[in-house]
Amino acid sequence: MKSENLSRRMILKSGLAVLVGGCALQTTQKGGEKMGAAKRNIPVGLQLWTVRTECAKDFPGTIAKVAKMGYKGVEFAGFYNYSAKDVRKMLDDNGLLCSGSHTAIDLLSNEKLAATMEYNRTIGNKFVVVPWLDRQKLTTKDAWLKMTATFNELADKTRSEGVHIGYHSHTGDFAKIDNETPWDILFSNTTKEVFMQLDIGHAVHGGADPVAILKKYPGRALTVHVKEYSATNPKALISEGDVKWKEVFEVCESTGGTQWYIIEEESGAYPPLEAAEQSLKNYKKLRNQA
Question: For the whole model, what pTM was predicted?
């Protein structure tokens, strides 16, 4: 299958064989765990879904290019059949940290959880994020409540590993079911150990107020997707759209508990590597770091 036709789900599932193989090396995350709330102290990573076509062609080379742009870490969206030991070497060789991994929920089943945790332990990952759920099975509040039990159970199982289990938002998470959004059903009924990876662009696109969400669930936004949204400009990158970034950053850095900002750009308006580099430049300019 051509790399440009790979879906996020297919790429994530492609890591299954590697995860089951596992590796023995144990490592710990050295950065981002207890970052201070002060401005500029939260590191910035790139969600590699942004450059997925490049990763499919040359995974090690793409990671090296991302590091040269100035990113401090990367969040994975599949491992392209590389072993955990090889992925760890890519990170170390380029001075990068693992800021998270988008992991299909079936890789967190009872049969596969141990191998998944071993893989993440090897690459130094503390943030395992479920990036999507089968919405055809989640059409009622009761169905979402059952899903909360799954997340609570996973959080209990991974706590001893020092690994956080989270869920990544999409626009549909803010459309009400029985007068309540799936996002609120999930995070009002899970323990504080289940963190929310709020995608700011998706939240605004879905009609939600990301600042209000961050305030409603203090300490649970451990990693935040820094993504722009514009109602009028589909090419808008960070700082070029409708998001009130100053307010978002203030909450993340005071009560949000945020340990990583993760840039993701998936509009397709620019070549992937160009989009990743310009997004980081825009972020730095926005934070007066340019």
Answer: 0.87
Give CB contacts under 8 A, 24+ apart, made by 149-158. 150/105, 151/186, 151/190, 151/194, 152/190, 152/191, 152/193, 152/194, 154/108, 154/113, 154/194, 155/190, 155/191, 155/193, 155/194, 156/193, 157/113, 158/113, 158/117, 158/128
Half-sphere exposure of 205 (CA within 13 A, CB side): 20
pLDDT exceeds 60 at position 46: yes
DSSP H helical ranges for the chain: 8-13, 16-21, 52-57, 59-69, 84-93, 113-123, 141-158, 182-188, 200-205, 210-216, 245-252, 272-286
Please check whether residue 48 is in contact with residue 55, taking contact to mean a CB–CB distance below 8 angstroms.
yes
User: What confidence tens digit (pLDDT) does each residue in 91-120 have?
Assistant: 999 999 999 999 999 999 999 999 999 999
Q: Rounded mean pLDDT of the chain?
A: 89
Q: Does domain 3-20+30-286 have CATH number 3.30.470.20?
A: no
What burial class does residue 243 get, using C-beta atoms within 10 Å of its C-beta: 0-12 exposed, 13-18 middle, 19+ buried?
buried
Tokens of 65: 């290019």
C-beta separation of 225 from 200 below 8 A:
yes
pLDDT at 181: 98
